[in-house]
C-alpha cells in the first residue's frame, strides 16, 4: 500500500514538474526574439498553427517554432490569426509577432497620383508600384475606360469636329491624391477608387455650382477644371483664372489657352510653342476652335473643380505670368499686351 502511494506521489510530482517545465519553455518561447530575415510575410487563408510554425521556420523568422501550436492552445486569444501580408518592421519577439497576425493590420503601400499629369504619366507610376497586381498590362486606354464604368456623360456626343483624337479619354477622370493599398491589390481596383472619388466630387460640385455658368454638363465643368489646373498651381488664384475662361465663354471668345495647344500637339511638343502651332488645327487648339476642347487635358484637384463651380465675379478677359509664380489679370487687349511686355522684360533680365 505504501509502495503504491509512493508511486502515485512520484507520478504527480513528475506531472507537476513536466507541466512547470512545459509552461516555462512556452513562456520563454513567447518572448523569444525573431530573426527578421523576411521583412514581409504573407499568411494564406486557412493556415493552421502547425503550418504557421513551418512557415516561420522556412522563412528563417524563427529557428525552431515547434512550440507554437502548444502556445496557441494555452493562449487561445492569440489564435485568431488573420490571412494577409504583414510587415515585420518593429516586431521584436514571438508575442509581438502573434499580436500583429491577430490584428489583421496588413502592410500598406502607397502610390501618388499628381495633379496636372496625364493618364499616360500616371500609368507609368502605377506599373512601378510595389506589390500591386498588374492586370492592365497591354490594355488600351479605351479598354480601361470601359472597365471603370464611368457616367454616360463621360463620352462626348458632339462629333462635328472631324479631327483625329480619342473620345474615350481617361485624362481628368481620376482623382489626384496619394492612395494606400495592401499587397495583392490590383491596379484596376486602385483606378476604380480614384475614378469613383472623382465622379462623386464632380457631381457634388455640379449640383452646388453657381447657376449662371455657361456650362451644360458636369463633363464640361471637368474639361474647364483641367484647363484651370494646368494654368496655375496656386490654389487661391484658380477662381480668378476660372473667371477669365467663364467670361470668354459668355462673350463667345476663343479660350486661347496654351496648355490645350500643347496637349493637342502630343509627342510633337518639344518645349516650345511656335506661331505655326497656334495656327494648326487640332481638336484641342483653342486658338482655332470655339468653346471647350472635346476632353479634359489633365488630372485635376478638387480645388480646380470648385474654382470652376464658383469662379470669382470679375471682368477679366486676359492673364499672363507675372514672374512671381502668379499671374497679372487684365480686362482688355491693350492692357494685356502691356502686361505681356512687362513679363518679357522681366524674363529677359533673368537670363
Automatic annotation (TrEMBL):
Coiled coil: none annotated. GO terms for molecular function: lytic endotransglycosylase activity. GO terms for cellular component: plasma membrane. Keywords: Cell inner membrane, Cell membrane, Cell wall biogenesis/degradation, Lyase, Membrane, Transmembrane, Transmembrane helix. The record marks 231 as: Important for catalytic activity. Gene3D superfamilies: Classic Zinc Finger (3.30.160.60). Its EC number is 4.2.2.29. It is an enzyme of class 4 (lyase). GO terms for biological process: cell wall organization; peptidoglycan biosynthetic process. InterPro entries: MLTG-like. It catalyses: a peptidoglycan chain = a peptidoglycan chain with N-acetyl-1,6-anhydromuramyl-[peptide] at the reducing end + a peptidoglycan chain with N-acetylglucosamine at the non-reducing end. HAMAP family: MltG (MF_02065). NCBIfam families: endolytic transglycosylase MltG (TIGR00247). This is Endolytic murein transglycosylase. It comes from Bisgaardia hudsonensis.
Amino acid at each position: 500500500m505504501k509502495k503504491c502511494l509512493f508511486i502515485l506521489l512520484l507520478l504527480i510530482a513528475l506531472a507537476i514538474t513536466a507541466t512547470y517545465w512545459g509552461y516555462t519553455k512556452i513562456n520563454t518561447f513567447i518572448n523569444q526574439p525573431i530573426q527578421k530575415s523576411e521583412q514581409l510575410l504573407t499568411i494564406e487563408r486557412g493556415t493552421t498553427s502547425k503550418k504557421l510554425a513551418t512557415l516561420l521556420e522556412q522563412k528563417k523568422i524563427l529557428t525552431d517554432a515547434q512550440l507554437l501550436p502548444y502556445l496557441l492552445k494555452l493562449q487561445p486569444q492569440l489564435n485568431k490569426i488573420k490571412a494577409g501580408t504583414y510587415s515585420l518592421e518593429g516586431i521584436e519577439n514571438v508575442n509581438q509577432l502573434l499580436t500583429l497576425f491577430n490584428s489583421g493590420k496588413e502592410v500598406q503601400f502607397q502610390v501618388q497620383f499628381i495633379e496636372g499629369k496625364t493618364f499616360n504619366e500616371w500609368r507609368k507610376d502605377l506599373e512601378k508600384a510595389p506589390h500591386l497586381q498588374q492586370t492592365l498590362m497591354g490594355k488600351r486606354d479605351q479598354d480601361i475606360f470601359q472597365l471603370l464604368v464611368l457616367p454616360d456623360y463621360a463620352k462626348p456626343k458632339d462629333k462635328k469636329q472631324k479631327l483625329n483624337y480619342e473620345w474615350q479619354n481617361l485624362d481628368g477622370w481620376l482623382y489626384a491624391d496619394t492612395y494606400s493599398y495592401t499587397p495583392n491589390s490590383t491596379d484596376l481596383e486602385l483606378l476604380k477608387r480614384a475614378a469613383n472619388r472623382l465622379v462623386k466630387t464632380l457631381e457634388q460640385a455640379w449640383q452646388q455650382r453657381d447657376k449662371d455658368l455657361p456650362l451644360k454638363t458636369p463633363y464640361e465643368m471637368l474639361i474647364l477644371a483641367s484647363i484651370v489646373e494646368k494654368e496655375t498651381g496656386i490654389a487661391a488664384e484658380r477662381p480668378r483664372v476660372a473667371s477669365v475662361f467663364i467670361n470668354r465663354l459668355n462673350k463667345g471668345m476663343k479660350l486661347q489657352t496654351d496648355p490645350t495647344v500643347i496637349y493637342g500637339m502630343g509627342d510633337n511638343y518639344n518645349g516650345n510653342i511656335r506661331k505655326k502651332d497656334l495656327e494648326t488645327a487640332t481638336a484641342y487648339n483653342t486658338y482655332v476652335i470655339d468653346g471647350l476642347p472635346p476632353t479634359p487635358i489633365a488630372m485635376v484637384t478638387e480645388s480646380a473643380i470648385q474654382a470652376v463651380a464658383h469662379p470669382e465675379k470679375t471682368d477679366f478677359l486676359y492673364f499672363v505670368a507675372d514672374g512671381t509664380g502668379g499671374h497679372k489679370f487684365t480686362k482688355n487687349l491693350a492692357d494685356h499686351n502691356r502686361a505681356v511686355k512687362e513679363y518679357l522684360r522681366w524674363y529677359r533680365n533673368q537670363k
